[in-house]
């Protein structure tokens, strides 16, 4: 079981995904809700065998209230197609449910959630995890990977390796699509290909399960 899903002082809500989504929309555990347009909760089948965990919503996700619908989401859709995975069979969510940003003129520029904000939001990821009990999980990006595996995890060193979280569940980490988009052109295609390879590992695991 990942660290965030283990018992904590704050009880983790246990309800349907629909009820959890409604509860999360009222969350005031950190200041991010004040500027955000919407709480971007997870999306996908309640019986999904695989969960993809991103880092935090971007501008388009905040406006729509849905995960992975902006530029990073479109790149992820292309990678899923290249790996032979159907997004509709997966549960997609983020470690942080609100968009954090800095204003530059009329633009809202992504800003990384700090440790307090990440910790405040983990109750919702834990609730999603305990509701789905996924057989397979893929963390996208360093923040998501460290949420799943602990602070000592290093994406550059341990990407693409299955790790047993308990007797039932295995998880892996890969590049976040937004990190690929921000990568220098000299490594962007390589990192995209590595993401596709990791998604193919997930597809193979699902086929063989």
Give the structure's gist in a few sentences.
With 209 residues, this protein is α/β, with parallel strands linked by helices. It has eight helices and seven strands.
CATH topology: Uracil-DNA Glycosylase, subunit E
* Mean pLDDT over all positions: 94
Strand content: 5-15%
Uncertain segments are none
What is the molecular shape? globular
First and last CA, distance: 19 Å
- The count of β-strands is 7
Please describe what this structure looks like:
Helix 3 crosses helix 8. A hairpin with a 2-residue loop joins strand 3 and strand 4. The model has no long low-confidence stretch (mean pLDDT 94). 42% of the residues lie in helices and 14% in strands. A five-stranded mixed sheet has the order 2-1-5-7-6, sandwiched between helices. The protein has a two-stranded antiparallel ribbon with strand order 3-4. The chain contains eight helices and seven strands, in the order H-E-H-H-E-E-E-H-E-H-H-E-E-H-H. By secondary structure, it is an alpha/beta fold. The protein has one domain: Uracil-DNA glycosylase-like domain (Uracil-DNA Glycosylase, subunit E, 3-Layer(aba) Sandwich). The relative contact order is 0.18. The protein is globular, with a radius of gyration of 16 Å. One of its GO terms (biological process) is DNA repair. Keywords: 4Fe-4S, DNA damage, DNA repair, Glycosidase, Hydrolase, Iron, Iron-sulfur, Metal-binding.
């Amino acid at each position: 079981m990942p660290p965030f899903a283990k018992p904590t002082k704050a009880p983790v809500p246990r309800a349907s995904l629909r009820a959890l989504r409604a509860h999360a929309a009222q969350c005031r555990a950190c200041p991010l809700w004040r500027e955000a347009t919407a709480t971007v909760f997870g999306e996908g089948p309640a019986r999904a065998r695989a969960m993809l965990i991103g880092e935090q919503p971007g501008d388009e996700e905040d406006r729509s209230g849905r995960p992975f619908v902006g530029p990073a989401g479109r790149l992820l859709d292309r990678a899923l197609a290249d790996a032979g995975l159907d997004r509709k069979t997966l549960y997609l969510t983020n470690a942080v449910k609100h968009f954090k940003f800095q204003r530059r003129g009329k633009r809202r520029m992504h800003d990384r959630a700090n440790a307090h904000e990440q910790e405040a939001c983990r109750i919702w990821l834990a609730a999603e995890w305990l509701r789905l009990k996924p057989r397979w999980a893929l963390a996208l990006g360093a923040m998501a990977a460290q949420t799943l595996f602990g602070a000592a995890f290093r994406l550059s060193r341990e990407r693409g390796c299955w790790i047993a979280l308990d007797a039932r569940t295995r998880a892996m980490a890969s590049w976040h699509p937004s990190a690929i988009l921000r990568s220098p052109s000299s490594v962007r295609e390589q990192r995209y290909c590595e993401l596709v390879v990791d998604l193919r590992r997930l597809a193979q695991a699902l086929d063989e399960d």
